[in-house]
Design a protein that fits this description.
Radius of gyration: 37 Å
Oligomer: single chain
Family: Belongs to the universal ribosomal protein uS11 family.
Strand order of the largest sheet: 3-2-1-4-5
Protein name: Translational machinery component
Mean pLDDT: 75
GO molecular function: structural constituent of ribosome
InterPro entries: Ribosomal_uS11, Ribosomal_uS11_sf
GO cellular component, one term: ribonucleoprotein complex
Strand content: 5-15%
């Protein structure tokens, strides 16, 4: 009986429980008490459910969203401003970037020159290429394109206020922009270079090379 009473009180409206309790009248119940008056107990529950004030429906509980002047309809000026100073300081801290030299990846192919500056942990901080510098098609792999892409990368680093104490340059490929990017970057951060690495993949008897072009 206690479980039946809890079920009755947990419903949102009294109209929802009345049809369910009316069905109990047609069921034969075995009472545990000495009087055996189970039907009267069910009738008391029905009477309490009918006399109880029905609670608000589920839709009424979300009226505060559509009511004018509610907290859900606050204007942009009412909302508190988010302080970005702490986030900017954390993004430049060693706990996020890591402790060690920054990495400058120079991917010099015969079609383009891609420069990527990463943190000691490997997060990409800035990236430029011959295409982003304004060069088109075959000119993207040239010497001047790589030089302008390096200057564009340095400008991005200054905009983000990146304080590079030391860095590590990683080369990949033998394109014409390889030396141009290296000279342009070292001209600005020359004393901070700690290591040079050539990561160009070299096959050891790998796949059969392409047929030589006939010119």
């Amino acid at each position: 009986m206690w479980s039946l009473a809890r079920a009755a009180s947990s419903c949102y409206k009294s109209s929802n429980i009345t049809p369910a309790l009316n069905g109990f009248r047609q069921t034969r119940w075995v009472s545990n008490d000495s009087t055996g008056n189970t039907l009267s107990s069910l009738q008391d529950i029905l009477a309490d459910a009918k006399s109880a004030k029905p609670e608000s429906s589920l839709g009424d509980r979300f009226d505060y969203i559509t009511k004018p002047g509610s907290s859900a309809q606050q204007t942009e000026t009412d909302k508190p401003e988010f302080d970005m100073s702490g986030v900017a300081a954390y993004l430049q801290s060693t706990s996020y970037l890591g402790d060690g030299p920054y990495r400058l990846h120079i991917n010099a192919t015969f079609n383009n020159t891609i420069l990527t500056l990463t943190s000691p942990k490997g997060q990409v901080l800035a990236s430029t290429s011959g295409g982003t510098a304004g060069f088109k098609k075959a000119a993207r792999s040239g010497y001047e394109a790589a030089h302008q892409a390096t200057l564009q990368l340095i400008a991005k680093m200054q905009e983000k206020n990146l304080q590079i104490v030391n860095y590590h340059i990683i080369f990949k490929g033998f394109g014409p922009g390889r030396d141009a990017a290296f000279k342009a970057f070292v001209a600005t951060y020359g004393n901070s270079c700690k290591q040079l690495t050539d990561a160009t993949p070299v096959p050891f008897g790998g796949c059969r090379p392409k047929k030589a072009r006939r010119l």
